[in-house]
Amino acid sequence: MVAATAMSSAFVVVVLAGFKLLPPVPVLALDNLAQLSAGTAGTLCCFWSARGRHGSDRKWRLLMGVGWGIWTLGQIVWTWYHVVLRAQPPQPSLADVGFLAMTVFVLVALLVFSDHRQPGSVVLPMDRRLTRARVVLVLDGLIVVGSLFILTWTTVMESMVRASSPSPLAFAVAIAYPLIDIVLLVIVVMLATIRLVGRRLPLAFIGLGMITLFISDCVFAYLISAGVKEIPPLANFGYITAPVLFALAALAPASAVPVAMYAAPPRRADGRLPVVEWVHVLMPYLPLVLTGSLILVRTAFGSAPGPLEIYLGLVVIALVVVRQLVTLVENMWLLDRIRQSQRQLEHQAFHDSLTGLANRVLFRDRLDHAIHLSARRGHPVTLLFADLDDFKIVNDGLGHAAGDALLRAIADRLRSCVRSTDTVARLGGDEFGILLDEAERADKIAERLLEALRVPFVISGEQHLVRASIGLVHADPHERGLTADVLLGRADIAMYSAKRHGKGTLVTYEPALGVTPSVVAPRLAGSTPA
């Protein structure tokens, strides 16, 4: 209702001003009152729509409400001069402070608008990209503004300013309006090229509001630069419609589906990026290339750039460098994340997720390598195979959580009994393998393992004694046809022989044990961790 009333007022003002249906004084009063009512409506709608919302949905509405509230205060000053004092406000005036301050709050609101996480969601390390993306948004806007300003100054504005000779401060304030509008428009366009699902409609209203505001600000800057003292009401149409459109943006429904601004863009069927992504990438550089080309052409024809173009051009180039540095830092961070992910995936592929020990795949790979190395150097391969005794009692009696805790504790003890150059692996549910790099230490390490397991484990506040039956294998480096499966089979034979002799014992494999290794090797090769 409020939005419809304000839009109707804007239409009435335009009709009355354009067709001169009323004398100038009533039209001027109606124009200022329409702007004041539109600013008030925009402020109230932003604050009212923030009620009951949370997170960024609430913050950006409150920020825009504050911004348009300050803008309305500036409009009160402007209306006081026009309607009450019947005089033109000085250039600049306190009204300009309110008008320009509004754009600062809108800028911050747009940056908050880009954060579309669910309230209470966990901030992941990847979310740090959001801060960099916000910085890039602002830098892109500044690059476009600097490039377009150099372009317009070189082609039109310089000659116009020299002819009208406005005061430097008045010209600076007047030109600040469209320049800041361009920054905000670029940010809106950049936000439109990323996947902010559920915020398209509010963003569309904000974009339309910025366009109308930009048009009126451009007209205002042109008239001030030309030395015009009286701003026609028709030029103020954007100052009536912009707050109303921002109010509609705040009132527009938004989906709660969060999509991060760094989400991977959808690709076409041929695998290429869509046009909107190319717009997102090339937007800050196209005005820069156009401006640079124009300056080069003018320089070639003998029209050298002035000091303003040179200094502002250096500033734009510095902004481009900063933007590239931010992008470079982001790319380096992404590469580091990829390396970390690769290392994590590699560790998960070759290590047991419960105990952190090497898994069966890594153990067999190292065992194959040890066999090949043994054949070249003539050193024997030594393998220990341990199967826990009475583990099922703990696992079934206290539950799988207690069983997992026990396996982790056993893994820690096994690691403490060997060197870092030895390989300790979990081969199955309660089966462990140890590949030693020195055969001379095998008996001592086996005894050390048995001794370590004789100390009770404290699980769920209770002590439990879990021992292990260990099979030991020494492989002759000159033996032909020796494979990892053969060694694992022999170790399994020795381990079962140890179980028959009693719990917590060690048996060294000998052919006289009388069991064919190939019978049990496939079971070990296909076992899976419990």
UniProtKB/TrEMBL annotation:
Domain GGDEF residue range list: 379-511
Residue stretches spanning the membrane: 33-50, 62-81, 93-114, 135-156, 168-191, 203-224, 244-264, 285-304, 310-335
PROSITE patterns with a match to the protein in the record: GGDEF
Originating species: Allokutzneria multivorans
Protein name: GGDEF domain-containing protein
Highest taxon above the source species: Bacteria
Keyword annotations of the record: Membrane, Transmembrane, Transmembrane helix
Pfam families (UniProt xref): GGDEF
Coiled-coil portions: none
InterPro entries reported in the protein's UniProt record: DGC-Regulatory_Protein, GGDEF_dom, Nucleotide_cyclase, Rev_trsase/Diguanyl_cyclase
